[in-house]
Amino acid sequence: MIENSRLKNMANAIRFLAADAINKSNSGHPGMPLGMADVASVLFGEYIKLNPQAPKWFNRDRFVLSAGHGSMLLYSLLYLTGYEDININDIKKFRQFGSKTAGHPEYGHLDGIDMTTGPLGQGISSAVGMALAERMLNAKYGDELCSHYTYVIAGDGCLMEGISEESASLAGHLKLNKLIVFWDNNNITIDGTVDKSSSTDQLKRFEAMGWNTLSINGHDFDEIRTAIKTAQASAKPTLIACKTTIGFGAPTKCGTSKCHGSPLGEAETAAMRQALNWTSAPFEIPSTILADWRATQDRNKTAYQTWVNAAEKAGAEFRLVIANKLPNGWDNELNNLKKQALLDEPKVATRKASEMCLKAIVPHIPEIVGGSADLAASNLTFVEGLKTVTKEDYHGNNIMYGIREHAMGAMMNGMALHGGVIPYGGTFFVFSDYLRPSMRLAALMGIRVIYVLTHDSIGVGEDGPTHQPIEHLASYRAMPNILTFRPCDVIETAECWQEALTEEHRPSLLALSRQNLPLLRKSIDKNLSAKGAYVISPCAKERDVTIIATGSEVHIAVEAQKKLAEHKINAAVVSMPCMELFEEQSLNYQLEVLGTKPVVSVEAGTTFGWNRYAKKTIGIDSFGASAPADKLYEYFGLTAENIADKVEKFLQKC
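Above: the chain sequence. Below: its structure as tokens.
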């Protein structure tokens, strides 16, 4: 245990690094780093299990700064504890272009940042996924290989956002007792005091969700210690309400919203130096205090070496799993599925095709974890070989998220970030709107998360426009670093699953049909979907027109091709299961696929975005309607007859 007088100096080191960096950049949020410095000093000084010399140590404790606007708290801790890829110049470059020390913590910019945070509620919710991954891997591999805590610092905003309600509820239900959340209970938001907008008793709320709850003075080192020890011994996840003063030490701004999101300024910082008896110049940390900080992680060296020895003795499966690598031959059965499909020519919905793929995948990838937002029977995401995780038994690979799409998205991010887990989760495509903030973060962080999104078009039918995604394909294609797959049959679905699982640095979504679709592919020699687009049905003679379609509209385009041939019009049909992958191909390949003649696009969604390829777009630029699917396709003009007619009239005008 560190003497309280030394801890006080260590906490002040955090405060002044934060204040000086924010002043220099003239931008940032000093209030939280100043207010939570005491809690962070006890946690990092005496309890958290890390090794700055081995920052990716799999059995380290995870730390999530859910209140990501207080990023200088984390950057200060990383520098003070001795992480090698951050130095004092990085602190001085806070929030500057190209700096590792971005405005909010960004995963991959610095060792020790376990996730990108900033959107409030995402951090605490992803931490639930991390804590769940730890319990699942612990059940599978034992204490020696995986046994650690997930710590979170969250603010009022994190607890107000609805996503935290969903994830905290599930954490309590599953009794994720190695999850410990420090709530910076400072009663301040940007617009003033919390009581202006909320009267929620957060402790009672979390207690009702099955959490252990504690309330402490966040500036009392002994109370902080006692709370951490109590939380570590709890059989439930713990919320520690840390009553703090925002901007602690700043004489005129502490306790007010003035220090939440604005630099203290030179005069206030000088006054704070005097108030806290800090005589060092900006960015200077006295050698004795820095030495105290650098020594804090020495206590974990034995634990680290013990884990290294255990990992060396573990089987090859464990080493592959924690490296996030797929085992050799993982897709052999998937390839056999494709071969059998050529023989059987099954006519099934692509959601059913996905289920067939999962049956071939799940038994051969130890780290795959499935789940659905209470729609497994519709998404067809639960297959033989999956076992549901419960609070009594974490040794499973399926999560019943309940009706909690928000939480599912964030928790899948947390599981992927934790490592040792490749998560996929299902819901209806239209409800991916609830997942979108988490999907965006997955894309920003570049992590392998897979979304199984079924009922992908007006093919939903009678459920009507509330359940019919019209604009969703275009919106995800507009999002950077995410692959949007829309396969047309069993073989394309298998190819898309292969691509999604081998993509280690970006998420993927599979938009899958409710209605049955015929098999169109004639060969499986190459994964053609990996190219993003290809000619699925060529014409015998030189083409007059190219028709691009995706998913459930590809077979309609092939039927239109036949009708056009009757009118002496040679059309080639291109299937484009993934626009993003097609954009990554060489210009020569793109020209080979699209040809040099006019291009027409066909898709049961908005035409927005298709003009990059097509001179004529056929789609739906309105909301859908409630009716049987075949009636809707007829009403919206997505029939072979209507497409052929529109193509012919279009060519007459060219």
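The first helix runs from residue 4 to 25.
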